[in-house]
């Protein structure tokens, strides 16, 4: 293969093909500009523009995370009842309204009301967005389309972070107000964009619809969800634990933390689509999840070496370990998309996709403290039991997925798992 062909392949892996895949990717990038802007500037906005102290901000965000966890399954059921596109549109409109209201929030009570409302809306919208992408495309296109969306999300996050830098440089109350109003406009544009996407045919609902919480009784599926959710700890490891390790146990300059975040963004944009190949079936997705888990385990073994090195060698070890973790993220994400695209039944896909998200929600509650205690607070030896845990999850997930695939979903005949007619 010549250099020109390599370039064409690289471009195909970054630029989505024309049609629905591209439309969904562009929507993701537009949305991510607003989301990335707020993620980068929210801490300063809460303290400077709203006058909250750090303890109030932390408490409010923790309560919002709890509300999101509790609402994931029941709010996911709204997608099954009303359809993913209407829920998605309404969610974006509510997001825009809530962000527009932020400058008028008075005190902790008002802040808490807004962040709790946003948590509930996001729980519903997150499921609706993914279910729409699954339902609107042919089975062989779904994982690749979700990979293009994730690549575009990272481009949008980067643009949003750059804009936040300008806001932080101005550092006035009005600048922060304009920031959240701009985000509200971005979400309004996203809602219009989603409204212009193709309408989905209605999915035939069961004659006796199951309870929105009944999916929690589907033990084979929930076992997959919990194991897959544990593997999303790569995000916690990269954004929280790795920086703490660098600061407390290595002689690397602090600036390497920002460089590693940039490395993560670039590699995801360039290689997420390529890493998703082969994950469009349940067995393929399970194997991808296993590879992701083993790569996380390798990261846990490689990282402690950086505590015993000095100078340039420390930087090399850190970049190598970070690259292992990025590869794990690329491959594991594709595996999770494949599992959510293949295991849930079409008629209850919203409830099932919402329930699948419980695993990652629990990870966000447990992993930051647990992995920091194991990896950082022990001085380094705790990385080895952490590696063993991830390796065991990787070895377990393939047979657990096979069992879930053999087991009919609740109230659904095995042959009716995927009855949505995709848009041609």
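^ Assign residues to that structure.
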């Amino acid at each position: 293969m010549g250099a020109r062909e390599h370039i064409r392949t690289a471009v195909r892996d970054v630029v989505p093909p024309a049609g629905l895949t591209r439309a969904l990717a562009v929507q993701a990038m537009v949305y991510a500009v607003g989301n990335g802007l707020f993620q980068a500037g929210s801490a300063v906005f809460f303290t400077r523009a709203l006058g909250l102290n750090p303890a109030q901000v932390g408490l409010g965000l923790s309560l919002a995370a709890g509300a999101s966890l509790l609402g994931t399954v029941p709010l996911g059921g709204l997608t099954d009842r009303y359809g993913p596109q209407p829920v998605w549109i309404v969610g974006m409109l509510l997001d825009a309204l809530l962000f527009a209201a932020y400058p008028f929030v008075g005190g902790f009570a008002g802040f808490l009301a807004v962040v709790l409302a946003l948590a509930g809306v996001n729980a519903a919208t997150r499921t609706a967005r993914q279910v729409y992408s699954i339902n609107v495309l042919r089975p062989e296109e779904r994982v690749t389309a979700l990979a293009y969306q994730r690549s575009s999300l990272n481009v949008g996050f980067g643009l949003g972070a750059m804009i936040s830098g300008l806001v932080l440089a101005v550092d006035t109350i009005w600048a922060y107000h304009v920031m959240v109003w701009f985000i509200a406009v971005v979400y309004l544009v996203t809602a219009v964009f989603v409204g212009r996407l193709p309408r989905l045919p209605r999915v035939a609902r069961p004659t006796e619809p199951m309870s929105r919480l009944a999916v929690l009784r589907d033990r084979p599926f929930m076992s997959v969800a919990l194991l897959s959710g544990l593997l999303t700890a790569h995000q916690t490891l990269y954004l929280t634990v790795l920086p703490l390790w660098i600061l407390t146990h290595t002689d690397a300059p602090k600036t390497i933390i920002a460089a590693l975040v940039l490395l993560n963004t670039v590699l995801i944009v360039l290689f997420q689509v390529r890493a998703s190949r082969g994950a469009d079936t349940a067995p393929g997705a399970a194997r991808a999840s296993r590879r992701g888990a083993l790569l996380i385990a390798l990261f846990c073994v490689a990282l402690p070496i950086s505590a015993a090195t000095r100078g340039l060698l420390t930087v090399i070890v850190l970049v190598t370990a970070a690259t292992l973790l990025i590869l794990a993220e690329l491959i594991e994400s594709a595996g999770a998309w494949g599992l959510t695209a293949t295991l849930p039944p079409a008629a209850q896909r919203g409830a099932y996709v919402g329930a699948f998200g419980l695993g990652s929600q629990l990870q966000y509650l447990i992993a930051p403290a647990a992995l920091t205690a194991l990896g950082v607070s022990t001085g380094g030896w705790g990385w080895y039991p952490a590696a063993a845990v991830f390796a065991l999850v990787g070895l377990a997930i393939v047979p657990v997925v096979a069992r879930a695939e053999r087991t009919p979903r609740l109230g659904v005949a095995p042959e009716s798992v995927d009855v949505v007619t995709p848009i041609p």
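The CA atoms of residues 97 and 184 lie 7 Å apart.
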